Amino acid sequence: MAANSADLLALCKRRGFIWPSFEVYGGVAGMFDYGPLGCILKNNIVEAWRAIYKGREGFIEIDSETVNPKDVFKASGHVDNFADLITYCQKCQAPFRADHMVKGFYENPDILTPKELEEAFVKHNIKCPECGGDLGPVDEFNLMFKTNIGPGSARVGYLRPETAQGIFVNYLNLYRYNREKLPLGVIQTGRSYRNEIAPRQGMIRMREFNQMEVELFVDPEDKDWAKFPEIENEKLDLIPNTTLELTTMTVKEAVEKGVIANRVLAYFVYTTKQLLVSMGIDPARLRFREHEKDEMAHYAADCWDAEVLLSYGWTEIVGIADRGCWDLSRHAQFSGQDMSHFKKFDVPREVEMDKVKAKNKALGPRFKGQAKDVAAAIEALSPSDVKDGKITVKVNGEDIELDGESFEVVHVKEKVAGERVIPHVIEPSHGLDRIFYSILEHAYEYDEKEDYTVLHLAPVVAPIKVGIFPLMEKDGLDDVARDIYSKVHVAGAEAYYDGSGTIGKRYARMDEIGTPWCITVDYETVEDGPNKGTVTIRDRDTKDQKRIKASEAKDIIDKLLAGMPFASL
Amino acid sequence: MAANSADLLALCKRRGFIWPSFEVYGGVAGMFDYGPLGCILKNNIVEAWRAIYKGREGFIEIDSETVNPKDVFKASGHVDNFADLITYCQKCQAPFRADHMVKGFYENPDILTPKELEEAFVKHNIKCPECGGDLGPVDEFNLMFKTNIGPGSARVGYLRPETAQGIFVNYLNLYRYNREKLPLGVIQTGRSYRNEIAPRQGMIRMREFNQMEVELFVDPEDKDWAKFPEIENEKLDLIPNTTLELTTMTVKEAVEKGVIANRVLAYFVYTTKQLLVSMGIDPARLRFREHEKDEMAHYAADCWDAEVLLSYGWTEIVGIADRGCWDLSRHAQFSGQDMSHFKKFDVPREVEMDKVKAKNKALGPRFKGQAKDVAAAIEALSPSDVKDGKITVKVNGEDIELDGESFEVVHVKEKVAGERVIPHVIEPSHGLDRIFYSILEHAYEYDEKEDYTVLHLAPVVAPIKVGIFPLMEKDGLDDVARDIYSKVHVAGAEAYYDGSGTIGKRYARMDEIGTPWCITVDYETVEDGPNKGTVTIRDRDTKDQKRIKASEAKDIIDKLLAGMPFASL
Question: How far does the CA of residue B243 sit from the closest CA of chain A (Å)?
């Protein structure tokens, strides 16, 4: 039976996967804590993602701050554009997302303007769902949590709405670390924040959430990927924005037919599928939907969402975008730093061009010690930056306007060794909590007749790899069980020792939390006979049981985790 | 040569361990980002800590939210007491920590009151260090970052100043997960925040920092630890608050002489030493200092700081405290939830006692559907809660005052199966960034004559385990090197492929970032002869080199990481 989100959330709470935050104080909507099992499952997802991006692809990882000064989000656009439309009830003052109020009356309520929404309230007689009062004016509400850095309110800070900006603002450090070469792949996982007006849908829309983001900086003229041929014949379920219809094709076809913009983007769309399926996402409930034209960011070359079918409907859990030069261009512009890449030609070329040249003689007396910086800033400009005979340069944080006394545009013929390009960004951005929840829904099986729940979690993500039970906690059975537990658990494969209740109950507890295997120590283990020194190992999905040597239990668990089929035991 | 913090921070920045945050926007004091090498080193520290607390001790881990509603920090005391004293220059408005202004004039400036500080400014003619202006009045400045949850300012939130509170507010969930048994050990790692007035000292005082906290809930009458005998003869360098002098004794002696309050606390003081030393902290620069009596929290039974000697002087990097029943008592009181543990007697005892009993007949008509909750809240009180014949109960968030019509105090004789106790908390709290920095300082060796730097990082924390170099990037040497790289790196032991510069330069680069071993592929590897198929492996600390089979490189790295001495190769 498919998962019902309420049942699944109840299981998650009862068994320690996730807990609504601050429940003893009445709770806060849109916030969840990861309990003991959830914390392990979440870490396992992170490790699976790292194994692909850091291990297989050799990308580098950073960990940057969550509180950021305003400059960062001025450049990224979040200060000006990261907002939902809000309206308050005029009677009870309750806040609502304005577009949610008119659902059912419009197909895409989120494209309505504040004025259109206000008119819609009147036209359709929409009232406060809590008290029936009139809804008030519609305003923008910025979704970043705001705070102050240091005393007073002089320095505004925001909790980051995405981990990506921490990579972009460190781009120059990262580029140097990579010895100024492209491609440069950087990953980051951690908290992000979105101060939702009225969060709903459990873990799908959280105010404090976890991301795993990948920012791959590439040469804009080289959007290929060396390992592309290895996966080019693999299949993808795609919904292109040209047809809006589901179509299955190979990665290679998708690029050749122009469905996916380029090979590097297609490679990472497929990588996303690999990662999700390896962690137990059902491929039959996974598709990639291209952003529709009015949905795609104006700067994006192409953008795909990995969507999974949940009890909430098709839900985005990963976005894979070619963001063009947007991110670095913006931060270069707002910080005044050069974030371009020098691309060497195979042979130097002779080119004719117009250039902006500083008049150093005029700059020296005027700018003194700063003159060199001003000259460099001038010569970093191109002739198109000259407006009405004037230019503006940013030096040490200050805007300086200059006229023809300080610079000139000259026509030159030069041998150039290469050219400067702004790297483009390929971004697979993963919603960790959504992936976590989706894995649970796709693993969930409830047998109504037997009132029995099994989570068919892939071993790689299962929080507990093996349950270890002494049939009775006496006669030395418990010693053998504890010994196996120590060996397996301390070596890093999470184990759970359970000595209470019938064996059936103990299996049921492990099935319910998705433990792939259970080991039982019984009297045959300790008594003379053909099975002395052996224990029973049981497989969660087939319920098959085999006897193995107790002394080999750790090795066998390691082999099963490495992919050996249970049947071959 | 001992580390100089400026040199070390320069190395950290140059080689990608840590970067001052937001440098392209002018930076923010007290904030650092972990670069590629730092991120791995930091994760390695977390894994070493997990291996002890989760692996060896079997504690459970959670991951709770960083934005918390005000109630949490009202209960914890942070809203009222987590403050530094601040003064502003009356001329330039620059903010300063008031106690820092009078350093040099007083031995413990941090115990002065605001009034005493204001008087001290006048008496010692202390002026603004930036502009010479007069310092203004001294006020409290709360060090929590403040924000609002949801729209408007109705719901104040704070960024947590410690991860511990996330464990305490989940105590009931955790206790149930542990089947209502003690001891119950819970760990959490993640971000915490402290909005410093004027941060200094690099990574020692960060506004956004990382913690690894352990909260061990124990029976207040049973402060023993089963594994204590395994370590009781190990030695500790202690500074007790009775003598304030360094003394070395065994863990057992420390408890028997009353130097450390109890066996469980002493066990975790020693565990802290084990963890730190295993990660490369120099035991000769590590000591445990007991909080002085006026320094210790009033509720703490005992508290020790692990201090390491850094270029900044002796610095606290871990605190290990017996916090008594403070944390759970406060949250029980503020949330109105019962957080006690039921401790079963071996045989039931007959006891006489006074009890508060609800008068159910009076409650029904008055409280209707709530009557049962009110009755339960009444009977959870003890006779000492009755003040002037009245009691106050909290039901569903509301305080209700009741008089003798609703309850009575009765004298009863009862068979009781056990008693309710509030668990005590043993808390080893680790400053992750400080540990990170201390490991680097203790690993740092700079040879001035040779202008050569080596980081002697313990292999368990070293970010790169092995550097892999082809002597030349041709003739197939690079293929062999890349093959070894893939096998080692993809299996999870971080490797670094370097094909440029002289071999000496490449060794130097790896020594500078603390890579324990390097493998070089040369012409002997590929040409016929006795060394065909072998590569050179070099040890960082001894500079010894051996030839090993290329095909065995991965296994050998695994064995070295598991502790095999290089000399035995």
Answer: 39
